[in-house]
Write a structure and sequence with these properties.
Distance between the termini: 87 Å
Shape: elongated
Radius of gyration: 40 Å
Strand content: 25-35%
Strand order of the largest sheet: 29-33-34-38-37-36-35
Number of strands: 42
Helix content: 25-40%
Number of helices: 21
Length: 789
């Protein structure tokens, strides 16, 4: 919202600077983004009276003028041959700036011109001018034109929060200034003649329209607006068109209530019907585009054909033109939700929709339409009829019971009762004293959508009073919290563990692109967002891997080739209508295992990522089971699903090198896993099951097998536990290189034997061990490399 300081002074006697007001506004919730000088003119620009006009002796298309500027006569050469004696013109003298143009005396075909006569275009008051501007009013030569036309005006560009639609107007911001500086707010009076009744019937058939107020204004003359009106519109960022349209825009900016003017003679019937659109119905709007409706929009019609898209934009065929003599004014109130949905659907963000979707004052309709009539009478010669007002969803001011001590209780400052009352009164609230301790406060309907509870009243008082005046103190409350709950504690423990494993925590957005989901083909479940921020964020993530791969790629492209990242967050399954969110932990890794140890050149492998998962199992005192799996986006022979108590809780694997290279520019092997944390939390045991210490000694045996590549040795390890006295089994070494046949890997398997009843003899152990080796080599494609003694 742009606020002209010159316009503001119509409503409050503000004598401060724009910079001072900007600081005050910013401290009270209306942040000023910048201070603008809309008119790029400076220096000496004065009123000059042309006292003599002569032809240029050396040019047919130039004239030489003698111009009186009060204290001297200046010689000015101009190409505007329509300039005549007696004209009063704006004259830019030496040193003046008109945009990027700096005025200097210069010879034009042999005659020195001591300045330049200005058009409105050069003063920044018109897009295109055909001639030098002549003042119609009498103006003393030498009058400072910048001051006279207020071209030195400053404009505040105020960022209005969505809950303060009342500040989307000059009156609204003036009300704020009134409260901040304790100044009276002056609302303009409207004076115009009323001639007869309005013979237009209004019918509201849509629940999307709450109020519709209208009247006819007859005998209007369409033409250019006066300079003061054009200047205020330009300062507010609105292009002047003609006096009728300019008045509607002016009233919108002044009051914050969007209005519209129809050419009455272009309406087939003397009737206004507000109804829902019919499916397939079309309308050509003022932006020159035709829109087709689906049936949930609200239309203004004349009973037969659509005239306007309610609350957003008028129709081309019913708009004001140069031949208009009678206008039908519209001041309405529409359902904010319906307007917002329609605006977003068609991508139509207008000054009207911007205000309606936030909520305008439904009870200022009569003042607003009277304001229109006043200006149309004054600037277009119009005569108004009485109004027709149909109010189907009446909104009454809300009333709050407010204990006066609430302010001190919340703010911690004893603000005088009269000060609080004055602040609220300045802001438009009506305060009635019930007794010494309580007020009844009537909330104005222009704050209907914003102020609802006593705490909102506290906010209004404290922000105007000034939070900087409130002395800060440390909190003096006793903490009685119970700390983290079980899930929070275990989540924290899991994050600390992953950090200790050398991983860095990442936090990614929950939104991803549907294209990424389709690229990986990881899951058929997509939770689509109905109104996404953009096309890159149109699906809720079904896995944490997508975001982690983006983060890994970002680092890898910047020469950080050793990356280990993890994230704990929620993923989304199900459908758009019935989404389900689940907390998971995921991790990705690429590069060297120990990047800070220059003597260790080992790269991160599948066994390392599996080791990280096994350590998580130890942390939560559970046991995982791994089963070979084929998961889209991962290498089949290096991917497994993870089970806990026979329930699938995640997966681990190597990312398909083609995906890693093509879409993420990562040339090295990338390993990843994802686990359901909820299952971990559920199965966590604070105290593990007690096991008595072993009484009898154990004996370990190792054997190296030549294992074909792509053979899953896990089934062998699992089988070892079926033999007598086997307490522990696993892999102790993996080797591929010199002496190993092609297509094989040397894997050393160990077994730990122990009995709970006796000390095992060498003979018993050797017999079982021999049986194990024989059985395994016969059942599986394994070969003994050599046997350790």
């Amino acid at each position: 919202m742009r606020l002209s300081i010159e316009w503001l002074r119509d409503f409050v006697d503000f004598n401060g600077t724009a910079e001072e007001l900007a600081e005050k506004f910013s401290l009270t919730g209306n942040n000023v983004e910048e201070i603008i000088k809309p008119f790029k003119v400076s220096g000496k620009i004065v009123a000059g009276k042309v006292v003599k006009v002569e032809k240029h002796p050396n040019a047919d298309r130039l004239i030489v003028c003698k111009v009186d500027i009060g204290n001297e006569i200046k010689t000015i050469v101009t190409g505007d041959l329509t300039v005549k004696e007696g004209d009063i013109v704006p004259l830019a003298l030496e040193g003046a700036k008109l945009g990027d143009l700096v005025i200097t005396p210069r010879k034009m075909r042999g005659i020195l011109s001591e300045g330049m006569m200005c058009s409105l275009e050069e003063l920044g008051l018109e897009e295109k001018s055909d001639s030098v501007y002549r003042f119609k009013e009498e103006l003393a030569p030498g009058t400072d034109i910048i001051s006279y036309l207020n071209l030195d005006d400053k404009v505040l560009d105020v960022e209005i929060t969505p809950n303060r639609p009342d500040c989307l107007s000059v009156i609204g911001l003036s009300r704020e200034a009134s409260a901040l500086y304790d100044l009276d707010l002056k609302i303009p009076e409207n004076n115009f003649k009323i001639d007869g009744k309005c013979n237009v019937e209004v019918e509201i058939q849509s629940e999307g329209c709450w109020r519709y107020t209208t009247r006819i204004v007859k005998g209007v003359k369409v033409g250019p607006s006066p300079l003061w009106l054009q200047r205020r519109l330009i300062a507010s960022g609105v292009r002047p068109i003609n006096n009728i349209v300019d008045i509607t825009n002016y009233v919108l900016l002044e009051t914050g209530h969007p209005v519209h003017a129809f050419d009455l003679n272009l309406l087939k019937n003397k009737k206004i019907v507000v109804r829902d659109a019919k499916k397939g119905e079309k309308l050509l709007l003022l932006d020159g585009k035709e829109y087709e409706f689906s049936g949930d929009e609200v239309l203004i019609t004349d009973g037969e054909r659509p005239l306007a898209l309610a609350g957003i934009m008028g129709g081309e065929e019913s708009g004001v033109n140069e031949n208009t003599t009678e206008v039908l004014l519209e001041v309405a109130m529409f359902d904010p939700v319906r307007i917002r949905k329609t605006s977003k659907k068609f991508g139509l963000m207008t000054e009207a929709s911007y205000r309606f979707e936030r909520g305008v004052d439904p009870n200022d309709a009569e003042y607003v339409i009277d304001r229109l009539s006043h200006l149309l009478s004054e600037l277009a010669g119009g005569v108004s009829t009485e109004i027709v007002d149909v109010y189907t969803k009446k909104i009454e001011p809300k009333v709050l019971h407010y204990p006066i001590k609430t302010t001190e209780k919340v703010v911690g400052e004893n603000i005088e009762k009269e000060t609080q009352k004055k602040i609220l009164t300045r802001l438009g609230f009506k305060v009635e004293e019930l007794d010494e301790e309580n007020w009844k406060i009537q909330i104005p309907t222009f704050r209907y959508f914003d102020v609802e509870r006593p705490i909102d009243i506290v906010e209004e008082i404290s922000r105007i009073y000034g939070t900087s005046k409130i002395e800060s103190e440390p909190f003096r409350i006793l903490t009685k919290g119970i700390g983290r709950n079980k899930a929070q504690s275990l989540r924290y423990r899991l994050k600390v563990h992953m950090t200790a494993e050398g991983f860095s925590e990442a936090t990614n957005l929950s939104f991803v692109s549907e294209a990424i989901v389709d690229r990986w083909n990881f899951t058929n479940e997509k939770v689509k967002i109905k109104n996404p921020i953009n096309e890159e964020m149109d699906v809720l993530r079904p896995t944490l891997i997508y975001g982690l791969m983006d983060s890994l790629s970002y680092n890898y492209k910047r020469q950080n080739r050793n990356v280990k990242l993890f994230e704990v967050g929620r993923v989304f399954k199900g459908t758009t209508e019935q989404p389900v969110d689940i907390e998971k932990i995921a991790a990705v890794a690429v590069g060297r295992l120990n990047k800070y140890d220059y003597t260790d050149n080992r790269m991160f492998t599948y066994y390392n990522i599996k080791g990280v998962i096994d350590n998580i199992a130890d942390l939560f005192k559970v046991k995982f089971e791994y089963k070979n799996a084929e998961i889209p986006g991962f290498v089949p022979t290096r991917t497994a699903k993870i089970y806990l108590n026979n329930k699938e809780i995640g997966f681990v694997g190597m990312v398909d090198p083609e995906i890693a290279d093509r879409f993420y520019d990562v040339k090295d092997e990338v390993y990843a896993f994802e686990l359901s944390t909820e299952d971990l939390y559920e199965n966590f045991k604070e105290v593990p099951e007690y096991k008595e210490s072993a009484v009898y000694p154990s004996v370990r045996r190792d054997v190296s097998f030549l294992v074909p590549k792509n053979f899953r040795l896990g089934v062998v390890i699992d089988e070892l536990f079926d033999y007598d006295y086997v307490e522990e089994a696993g892999i102790s070494d993996i080797y591929s290189g010199k002496g190993i046949p092609e297509g094989y890997t040397s894997i050393t398997v160990y077994c730990v034997f122990r009995s709970n009843e006796k000390t095992l003899s060498e003979e018993e152990i050797n017999k079982t061990w021999a049986e194990i080796k024989k059985r395994l080599t016969e059942k599986y494609p394994l070969k003994l490399r050599f046997e350790e003694v």
